[in-house]
Amino acid sequence: MRTSAVVTGALSLLLLVLVAADWSPLLSFDRAVAEALHRDAVAHPGLTRLNRVLTDWVWDPWTLRALAFAVVLLLARSGRRRLALWVAGTVLASLGVQQAVKALVGRERPVWQDPVDSASFAAFPSGHAMTAAVICGLLLWVFALVGREPWRGWGTVAGIAVVSVLGVGWTRVYLGVHWPSDVLAGWLMGWCCVAVAILAYRRSLVLRPLPAPERDHGGEGT
What we know:
Number of helices: 8
Helix content: over 70%
Number of strands: 0
Shape: globular
């Protein structure tokens, strides 16, 4: 997990630098992919409507956050308050990171003469993609910690998580509100946040003081 955190963090930083520096090969790639998908979105309104439903309702950041906090409540009610606070704190911290990077980079979103959707605020990183990566990653971690083994539903849950993370990234580029590198950055930063949170949680368990051993009074006075 430490390697995962370091690699995704380094790649996120590299991508941020390339975007901030307007590196032309990356910008050319972004423009080529975005233009091709936008043409398809304009030509297929039915598919475009489906993508809008998925991105605005099924995989909307607030929908995913509501799911995360429902899990937080279940954890708290089951007595796992430490884990519940960790999940909630990670979701909030990742949102802070996301907004700070957006404000720092200030990248403009794609502009089209015939837009099929709209979005506000800065483009980099994609908030939808980062939120999906964070929350799906956290939920898989929670299920791995508290789930029973063997659990037949694990493959299904993992599959839904992967489809959700990849799917929401696709919708943002297809609808013309993000560049591909925005989505990639969202995935990388999101997973980096999850990996750091898991490492910090494990560290907190190691550092947590053990309960004092009970004294044996049975031998006193004999």
